[in-house]
Amino acid sequence: INELTSPGARFGVGVAEDADVGSNSLQGYELEANKYFAVEVKDSHDGSKFAELVLRHALDREREQSLQLVLTALDGGDPPRTGTAQLWINVTDANDNPPVFAQDRYRVSLREDAPPGLTVLNVSASDADAGTNAHITYGFGETPAKVLQKFIIEAETGTITLKESLDFEETRGYTLLVEARDGGGLVSHCKVEVELVDVNDNPPEITLLSMSNPVPEDSPAGTVVALLNVEDPDSGENGQVSCELSGEAPLSIVASPSGSYKVLVLAKALDREEAAFHELVLRAMDGGDPARTGTARIRVTVLDVNDNAPVFSQAEYTVRVPEDASVGSVLVTVTATDADEGLYGHVRYS
């Protein structure tokens, strides 16, 4: 009898025979006490009495797969005589139970450098039905295409596997809707939340936003030379960056008030006559283990100003002139030099 059979259904169980006649013949039937079935006595056209089982309460194969009941036939003699038959009722399965996941929500952490082919986790569901009604296959429900590009699920085992490489800086996690479908078409769902764990896979990036170049040599200390943006897309300590300058340039690093930028300022006065340009390397290092670094080379040209007076080769020249020297005779040649360049270094005499 199928477990979805409605109460009130009737089932014939045959006729008992009694060789006696009259009141000593078969008079009725009795059924062993149970909560599902009752017996009713029916008269056939030839006057014999047969039994019908009547279903009083719905069956549930998942609670009881079979019933063994004793049916007794009684005659009307004194004392009465009885005969018995054993009824073995098999309850057949109906697909009345959907699959049930072991958990409604699964959570898993995955490093962003996890290799494709890695098993992420196994989901499992059970079905109280039997046979094909209990056979479960797994798949993804309504899931964005970009998520389906990253993960696959094995239909028979519920094993979720990484399909493509991950990037924490692109997406920090994924939510998968997994469905379990039994052989009768009933479906249930669970959620799988994949949290990505950042690894230090990005070096700091240095971007030169603006720069004053060349820099006049009479610029005072504290003059802003360059504005830099230094950032690391990683998170936590992996994205915390410190900077340092290497080289002999008279510059220093100052953080902007917002902390988003680095400012290069003059640490002391420049002197073009000592150095016409300065080359330095800005090195940015994150807090990962191991740390990753980024570098930028900066060349600062010093612009000349007229800060040097001409200097004679001698402070005093002594010249002896014969009294008969003719007009136009060269008496002496004086020389002066100027450390500045261009027009600032061009010397005229008077």
Bin the helical content.
under 10%
Total discrete domains: 4
**What is the CA-CA span between the terminal residues?**
131 Å
How many beta strands in the DSSP annotation? Answer: 25
Helix/strand structural class: mainly beta
- CATH classification, class level of the largest domain: Mainly Beta
CATH architecture of the largest domain, by name, is Sandwich
As an assembly, this protein is single chain
CATH topology of the largest domain: Immunoglobulin-like
Shape: rod-shaped
- Poorly predicted segments: none
Query: What's the name of the CATH homologous superfamily of the largest domain?
Result: Cadherins
Mean pLDDT: 92
| Cα gyration radius (Å) | 50 Å
Strands of the largest sheet, in order across it? 8-15-14-11
Question: Main sheet?
Answer: 4 strands, mixed
Number of helices: 1
Order of helices and strands: EEEEEEEEEEEHEEEEEEEEEEEEEE
Work out the strand percent. Answer: 35-45%
A few lines on this structure:
The protein is built from one helix and 25 strands. The chain has 350 residues and is mainly beta. Strand 12 and strand 13 (159-162) form a beta hairpin.
Which SSEs are present, and which pair or pack?
Elements: E1 10-15, E2 26-31, E3 37-43, E4 49-55, E5 66-75, E6 82-90, E7 100-101, E8 105-111, E9 119-122, E10 125-126, E11 137-140, H1 145-148, E12 151-153, E13 159-162, E14 173-181, E15 187-197, E16 205-211, E17 215-216, E18 224-231, E19 241-246, E20 251-255, E21 261-266, E22 277-286, E23 293-303, E24 311-312, E25 336-337
Parallel strand pairs: 8-15, 17-23
Antiparallel strand pairs: 1-4, 2-5, 3-4, 5-6, 7-10, 9-13, 11-14, 12-13, 14-15, 16-18, 18-21, 19-22, 20-21, 22-23, 24-25
Membrane topology: Single-pass type I membrane protein
GO molecular function: calcium ion binding
Domain Cadherin: 1-101, 102-206, 215-312, 313-350
